[in-house]
Amino acid sequence: MNRIITTLDALKRQEKKALIGYLTVGDPDLDGSERNIRTAIENGVDIVELGVPFSDPTADGPTIQEAGQRALRSGTTLKQILDIAKRLRGSFDTPMVLFSYANPLFSYGYERICAAAAVCGIDGLLVVDLPFEESGELREHMKRHGLVFIQLIAPTTSLERAETILAQADGFVYYILVKGITGAREQLDSSVGAHVAELRKRVNIPIAVGFGISNGRQAREAAVFADAVVVGSALVQAARDGNLAALVQELAEAVHGKSPKA
Amino acid sequence: MKHEPDAGGHFGVYGGRYVAETLMPALIALDRAYRDAVADPTFRTQFQTILRDYVGRPSPLYLATRLTEAYGGARIFLKREDLNHTGAHKINNTIGQALLAQRMGKRRLMAETGAGQHGVATATAAALFGMECEIFMGEEDIRRQAPNVQRMKFLGAEVHPVSSGTATLKDAMSEALRAWVARVDDTFYVIGSVAGPHPYPIMVRDFQSVIGTETRRQSLDQVGRLPDMVIACVGGGSNAAGIFSAFLDDTAVKLVGVEAAGFGIKTGKHAASIGAGRVGILHGSKSYLLQDADGQVLNAHSVSAGLDYPGVGPEHSFWADSGRVEYCHITDTEALAAFDDLTRLEGILPALESSHALAEAKKRAMILGLKTDIVINLSGRGDKDLDHILSWKASQRAGAKKHGADSTRRCHDGKTDVSTVVPPRKRDEGGRRYS
Known about the structure:
Chain A has helices at 3-13, 30-42, 62-73, 78-91, 102-108, 110-119, 136-144, 159-166, 192-200, 216-225, 233-241, 244-256, and strands at residues 18-24, 47-51, 96-100, 124-127, 148-149, 151-153, 173-176, 207-210, 228-231. Chain A is α/β, with parallel strands linked by helices and 262 residues long. Chain A has a 9-stranded parallel sheet with strand order 5-4-3-2-1-9-8-7-6. In chain A, helix 7 (136-144) links the parallel strand 4 and strand 5 (148-149). Chain A starts with a helix and ends in a 6-residue tail after the last helix. In chain A, 58% of the residues are buried. The model of chain A has no long low-confidence stretch (mean pLDDT 94). By secondary structure, chain B is an alpha/beta fold. In chain B, the strands form 3 sheets. In chain B, strands 3-4-14-9-10-13 form a 6-stranded mixed sheet, sandwiched between helices. In chain B, strands 1-2-12-11 form a 4-stranded antiparallel sheet. In chain B, strands 7-6-5-8 form a 4-stranded parallel sheet, sandwiched between helices. In chain B, a hairpin with a 2-residue loop joins strand 1 (10-11) and strand 2. In chain B, helix 4 (90-103) runs parallel beside helix 5 and helix 4 (90-103) crosses helix 9. At the A-B interface, helix 3 and helix 5 of A face strand 2, helix 1, helix 8, strand 11 and strand 12 of B.
């Protein structure tokens, strides 16, 4: 059984929501980012997204763009990211999702990346610019290697389209909270709760929400209607400011509804 | 021969829609609206009327006799897109897309631009239709292309400087995509080339196909037969797709796309995506792409800002693999020599982009021989490039490091290796004879 599914199931049985944390691998360098990922896991992240840096991140705001630039300047490659995943898997059972744009994976080879990711203990892939229509080939290889393909649903996605996408969904569904790119926002849109409720009628796997969540208050609001809360840019910024552990604890407390796990 | 992609916009393995889910519904709606518009005779008449009365179409097909004589072989005809309003072929497409935006009830246009030609053409269409306009342009390009920035501002557009990445066209397009995600409800994104996600590659090709349709008709009317060869420069590839599209079924007409070899392919400083790239995914479609071993996109280089892009339209990748179009490349130095030739011999200042096509014709005219005809798509005028050319020549005179032309040539029709038939390099510098 895939670790993403077992972890979300276990949390659900405990009536707890999940905290999903994103960090760009290689930012500020490989060792530094490995330490940051360990810090995030040790302080309460339930699922970790390993961000693959890309030269042209068209769905990301300035925080993650700059993290990607730092990672590329430090020479980060996909192969090194897989090596880090393997080391992390030696220490933790936490599910890991490789979060990437299509081209680094396509360049590596879809079949080859799926085989390598599975060997290194990665549990799923999320590809920002690979919508449902273009993902067939990759999904086939993923299935063969026991990996979960995380489908994204946007506020612009019609319910009809969402149904088609969700028929193939696995692990969890990632609902994008804003019409826009990644990055911290002041306020969550008040209509998203209703959107998520509509989705829930059509899918029986957990629904994660993300884009824009940066603090405990927002995470708590989102956890009311979602099964999991994704935080990315805010963690990247906190890692840079040296207060990653504190922010993860604050978010974990908000999402889990009690003290972070020991 | 089938020239349409599948319903998802795939030309063989190329093309498609590689974008964030947030944009997918907008692209699907755009595809539907576009198909609906081109099926509507009112829309087509409206488009053709504006092209005639405002853009100044048809543009002439001109027999360049002095250039023909100098190049010593095939007769050389120029398709004069430089005579269009705003000075390049770009306006054909922006008029088409602005009309479509209006039909879809959008009040706001946005676009990316490199040298500023597409930005000016979009701002022009916005002014014509009374729409708001926002242009994304790299800070580096804003510095290099100040007059076009000023033109866009006079036309009422807001010019949004992009400082991310290398601050050039590729980053401007990334930033435009990000901005579109946030305002997808009220904004129409006018892409300037046959690149980007479906339906942009076919939409831009179709709006530019007027170039090819006219050229074909003018050839038959003026010469009594079709040309033997059509040559066009290829950055993203919209002027080439526009002129090639009318000749795809005329298999006797050889089609040649010219990429920018910059300082030379071997230097790594070039923009020859087909000639030296490998298949990848950028800005919404799968196509040949300049990238490193890890799938990170490389920076392109060309003396011509309009060719300075690491990708190429997906249909060009398809034509390259199928062999219907042969793709070659021309260095900065060769393009500048051809610029001099046309200016001095015909009194026409070509854009540096179009100069690449001229330079390729110079190599081929003699080989093709007398009693044959070459049409060059003269995609734009060179006034925008004068400062740039002046400083380039000054640096050459100052004895700055001369970037030698790379004589290695790769052609992608899978059959012809032109390196065996290209005249010796001495001849390439022969253009100076006429200066």
